[in-house]
């Protein structure tokens, strides 16, 4: 049997833990960078949504349907949010710790013993860059999703 595996990251943001928590959860669609490899069906993605409270879901919303990515397992505004992936064996724990400069956002992904990580731990990898960038520009940025440009190819025979 294999032991559980963990992966972690962190980012310090210039905001209170309450503000950082609200931005992380309520504004997921604004800081999550849309692109060809950042969603299961990025061409149809209409919204990334995190439903509040234990039992809430993290969803990729498409026109007419949605894909459940995870279920919320802990909800402590200003302190912690955690979820269990619906697509693999990954659990994510996000902590919001006060610092002199604002808040340290700590993420830890755990892959269950003998389990698989089919992308569920990606939050740990992308959050420092994406959420950090959002928090730096949040007060002046337009309230619209950030999308990576798609590569267009013209084939000629």
Low-confidence stretches: 149-157
| Fraction of residues in H or I helices | 10-25%
Assess the beta-strand content as a share of residues. 35-45%
Number of strands: 9
Number of helices: 3
Compute the separation of the termini in Å. Answer: 53 Å
Q: What is the topology, as strand order, of the major beta sheet?
A: 1-8-7-6-5-4-3
Rg from alpha-carbon coordinates: 16 Å
Mean pLDDT: 88
Q: What class would the helix/strand composition place it in? A: alpha+beta
What would you note in describing this structure?
Strands 1-8-7-6-5-4-3 form a seven-stranded antiparallel sheet. It is globular and about 40 Å long. The longest helix has 16 residues. A hairpin with a 6-residue loop joins strand 3 and strand 4. The protein is built from three helices and nine strands; from the N terminus they run βααβββββββαβ. The N and C termini lie far apart (53 Å). It is of the alpha+beta class and 157 residues long.
Brief summary:
This protein is α+β, with helices and mostly antiparallel strands.
List the helices and strands and how they pair.
Layout: E1 5-13, H1 17-26, H2 28-31, E2 33-34, E3 45-50, E4 57-62, E5 65-76, E6 80-85, E7 90-99, E8 102-111, H3 122-137, E9 146-147
Parallel strand pairs: 2-9
Antiparallel strand pairs: 1-8, 3-4, 4-5, 5-6, 6-7, 7-8
Features:
157 residues; alpha+beta; seven-stranded antiparallel sheet; two-stranded parallel ribbon; 3 helices; 40% strand; globular; disordered C terminus
